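Student: Send me a single protein entry containing the residue sequence and its fold in token form, directly below this note:

Tutor:
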Amino acid sequence: MSESVVIIPTYNEKENIENIIRAVIGLAGGFNILVIDDGSPDGTAAIVKDLKAGEFSDRLFLIERAGKQGLGTAYICGFKWAIAQGYEYIFEMDADFSHNPKDLLRLYEACAKEGADVAIGSRYINGVNVVNWPLGRVLMSYYASAYVRLITGMKIRDTTAGFKCYRRRVLETIELDKIRFKGYAFQIEMKFTAYKCGFKLTEVPIIFVNRVLGTSKMNGSIFSEALLGVLRLRWWSFFRKYPKVSSAKT
């Protein structure tokens, strides 16, 4: 079995899902894929089932959930599945090609060979590397990350990034059932929790390309959730005892 699995949450991604599956499985790294579909009415899950029943029966997996339950709960579900299956490197990735599948190899190298516990595909570690976003959205995202750094004390430049690789021990240690956010603030909470536990987080520069096909799920309310949520996250941290990396299994 592969030591790596890429978790891809989906909702109405029929235009992208087959191509992203083929691109990831075609990489030299031997990545398996877990798709978590939240009841897409457009038939996304049916496409995955067809591919699984055919040429990718041993590399592609699917969890279907009833309706939209939130990005965070999708990933938590996927993390628990990946731990149970024994994967050592567990990735988050979007379905819409905003994340270049080839960068999975660089995230893997950062964890497997360079000693990181969490590798983050960063849009902002080397300037601003975003393609086809309106200027307002770029500024909103960039300054949201700066705000999160200020509040949390993390040194991460791209605090809202959703393209990541976790070593298994990180997800085993950080008490997944205590992660509270379900939307995009989930991405901040996961990084902050790993940081508070003492894990090594590193950023790998990527170029983020806005989706060409399908409909974006991003909107202003999502950023508002993240901005307000980080204050709550910092407040909670004063009262929570975080597991420490020294107690994690190596």
User: Anything to note?
Assistant: The beta strands are 4-10, 32-37, 60-64, 89-92, 118-122, 130-131, 164-167, 201-205, 208-209.
